[in-house]
Each structure stands twice: as structure tokens, then as C-alpha cells.
Amino acid sequence: MPVPDWEGNCVTILPNSRPRWLVLLWVVPLWIVLAGHSVADSPSDKFYQQLVANGGRYQDEKLQAYINELGQQLVAVSPMAGEKFTFTVVDSADINAYAMADNYVYINRGLLAFMRNEAQLVSVLAHEVAHITLDHVAGSRGLMLGAQLAAMIAGVLTGSGDVYQAGIAYAESIRSGHGRENELDADSEGAKYMAALGYPPSEMIAMLSIMKDYEQMMKARARDRGVSRPVYHGIFASHPRNDARLRNAVLPAADNLALTARDSARFRLMTEGLIWGDNFVDKVVPAERYSDLNARVRIDFPPGWHHRGSLQSDDLLAMPAAAEDNAGDRSRTESDAADSAATVLLPGQATIALSVQPRTLQSPEEFLYNQLKLSPLQQGSAISPAGLAGYSGIGLDDSGAPYQRIALIYYRYSAYLVVAEVAPALRNSAAFANADKLFMQSINTFRPISQREIDGQKPARLNYVKANERSSIAAISAELGLSDSEQDQLRLINGLYPRGEPEPGQWLKIFRQ
């Protein structure tokens, strides 16, 4: 559903498509607005701490240091020179930047991808710093945000698009009365900070023009669906290049432009490899999953278990987690668990071992008996996890009690042996049958890891290439296998939307895995 951002715009959040920390970006700012500046260890501080703790801070320390350096330079030429500011790149593909109380400035990595040089980056940071120095974060801008967040929450709780849209309409009425004035004031003030550092204020208009082009591209895509997609600083009815009020607010600052040399290559070097789109690097993997990218196989052990070792070094062994980490009832003893045939096994009650050896031309069943010399298994049968050939059965101890679930699975040139075993206290029919359910569930998760899956775990990243005489957007898109919409994005991030073509010698951004 569309979700309002700090600037009074909308970005689209797909259900279940954002990590938990990102929800904070929409809920916590309302708390911050209402709390103001007066609380020690304020909501702004807590929000930042939670953002970092939950993985919302983009994991590129060189880029973080670069953004912070530029931000601190802007603060040093502002009326708040000497005060503490915190600048953070957020690991979000959404196109946004925002300022919060207590001098926090956030910029999403998604916005960085659309910038063409350092001056455009500085223009966004200067704009957000200016919102703080002009004390906009707790005024009508904060009121507008509160209205939007209330609309979002009401829409989610009621499931009603009408409720959501009515709330957004109210928020937009606040913005129409006060928002543009604040934005223009922040543009004008930020342009002064830019000029004081030697950055041409015209790059602020260039940056806003890119965002307007993005808005037009998204509107063209959404027209048939009836979806409105304004973006960062999306308050200009006309194009920023032609907006007289914007030009009058920003360009006079150029009269005081400092003569400072800037490294034009630094921005390119700092954003090389920037993640494009969704970030799969920090995708949550269950703790009980073991993956071997060399053998290209994986298996999920029972929930709450941990594993040690590897297929490459020695036998892989999994077991229930320690009592303080176990998700089950911690008050039960081992004998209680055995008597009640509990579905959660406690530490010391069971293990699952996985090992690998070269396969033969024999069937999996023949391999177990002829190569491994096992005694006949009870309830033996063929298995086929992920369509692979395998065989499994139950092993008995010397007293005839069931104590092992054994499975052999063939994949490529290897035979994977799974030996799941229970402790003596569980070697009775009822307790073993209960544990065996977990064993078989785990065995049935064994499967190959495809190259497609490996590639799918890697996010697309931005790279820079230099155009030559034969370079064209169509040719580059064909080489990268881009769709029509991705081709539009390629033009946009290179300042060539909607129909421009690169010039020989021009640095181009491309995105690929």
C-alpha cells in the first residue's frame, strides 16, 4: 500500500516485503514529532539505536564516513555550527531523505543511486540540514507527518482504502498550505550552505529535476492502475527547471560561491558497488539451516536446533539448542519429555549427523547395505527429497528398541548420509515415533542449491562504465538483459530520461548482479 514519507510524499511498500526495522521509519517519527526536543535519551535517539540494532543502517562504512564528512561540512557553515549532527545512510531502496528532531539526518541508499555527482548529494543533505536549522521538524511539517501516519495506521487497522485516502487528503491539505513554503525555505537556506562550500546551487535544481523525471516515469507506469506516485520533494506542479519560485529561491546563493576545488571522481568511487533495489545480503536465514555452497546442498534441521562442523572438514552435527535458547517448555525434564512424547526435543535427547562420501552405481538401498555394511533397517522405503534418489529406514539397538533414523541421498557424484539418533531415555516406540517426525521433516528439506538460487541471493549493484562511440542505451540494455521499465531506469539514473543517449567518454551507471 502507499505509505507517506517524511516529506509528505508516497512510496509503495509491498506487504511483507520490508524488514522489521523499516516499519520504524513510518511509526516512530510520529512519536518523535509529539515528543519534541526536551526529553533526555529522546525518541530520536532510541529510533537511531533501534535502526542500527535491527540492520537498517547500510553496511558500507566508507560510504557512511563519506556522507557524514559532507554533512558535517554543511553543519559547519550553518547557524548551528558546533552542534552535534548524526548522518546515516539507510539500507532502503525507497527514494527518500528526511530530517528528525535532535539533529538526525537520514538518506536512503535508493536516493543515492539517482545522483550524478557529489554536488547533487550535497544538495539533498543541505536541504535536510536546513529543515533542522529552520526548525521545521516540529512545526507544520511535523503536523502533516502526524496526519499522514494516522491515515496509514487507520488504513491498516481497518483495511479500508477509503479511510486511508481520506486521511491522506487531510494531510495534503496541510501540506498545500504550509509545505511548499517550508520546502522552498529549506532549498534557499540549503543553497547558501552549498555555495559556502563551493558547490554550485544549480545542482540542487538539477537533483530535483531528476526526481521530477522519476515521478513522471512512475506516473506513466501507474496511469493504467490509477496509482499516484509522487516522490522526494514532490511539490512542484511544473518541472523544477522551469519553476520560477524555486530558481529565485536557490540561484541567488551562487553570488557567494566559494572557489573550492572538488574531486569529481570521489562520488563515483564511493558509490561504485552501491546496492540497487532490494538488498538480499542481509536476508534472514533460519539459524537451523546448513548450506554448503561448495557441495551446493542444504538442509534445515529442526526448529530451535544448532549445528557445528561442516561437510568440508568433518561430520556435520546438529542438536537441540541450550535450555536458555530452547523455544519449548523449559520446565520439563528429560523423563517428562519422554513420557509425554513431546514434539520439542531438549539438549542431550537427540542428534542429527550429516556426512558425505563418493557414490557408486548401486541404488541408495544397496549402498547402505553393501558399502556401509548396515544391519537391515526397519520400515525401509525409498525417499525422494527434492526429487533426488534416496532410501531411509529405522535402526534398532541391541535390545531391539528403535533409536536411529538413517537416510542416504544421492546428489550428483556424492552420497549424503543422515544419521538421526535419540538418547536412551527416548528409546521406546512412542517417544521415538515422536522424534522421528522431526527427523523426517528435516531429511525432507535436503535439496540442491541451484545457480539461480545462488545468484538470487546476490543483490544487483551499481557499476560505472565509460561510453564509447558505439554505446547506446538500447545496446547496453540488451547486453544486461534489461526489461523496458529497467531501460527507463537506466536512462533516468544517467540523466538521459526519456530519450537521451550517452556521449563518448561519459561515465555511465549500470546495474547488474
UniProtKB/TrEMBL annotation:
It comes from the Bacteria. Signal peptide: none annotated. The keyword Manganese does not apply. One of its GO terms (cellular component) is membrane. Coiled coil: none annotated. One of its GO terms (biological process) is proteolysis involved in protein catabolic process. Residues 62-248 form the Peptidase M48 domain. The keyword Hydrolase applies. Keywords: Hydrolase, Membrane, Metal-binding, Metalloprotease, Protease, Transmembrane, Transmembrane helix, Zinc. Its cofactor is Zn(2+). Pfam families: Peptidase_M48. One of its GO terms (molecular function) is metalloendopeptidase activity. The chain crosses the membrane at residues 21-40. This is Peptidase M48 domain-containing protein. It comes from Gammaproteobacteria bacterium LSUCC0057.
